[in-house]
Amino acid sequence: MITSGWKDFETLESHIAREQTMHPESRGVFSNLLRRIGLATKIISSKVQRAGLVDVLGKEGAVNVQGEEQMKLDVLANEVVKATLGWMPPIGGFGTEEEEQVTLFERHEGEGQYVVMFDPLDGSSNIDANVSVGTIFSIHRRISTGPKPELRDFLQPGHRQVAAGYVIYGSSTMFVYTTGRGVHGFTLDPEIGEYILSHENIRIPDRCHCFSSNDSNYSKWDEGTKKFADHIRYSKQGRYANVTSRYIGSLVSDFHRNLLYGGVFMYPADAKTGKGKLRLLYELAPVAMLAEQAGGTASDGKQRILDIQPTEVHQRVPVVIGNKEEVELYEEFVRKCQE
Question: Residue 267 and residue 211: Cα distance in Å, rounded?
Answer without folding.
Answer: 11
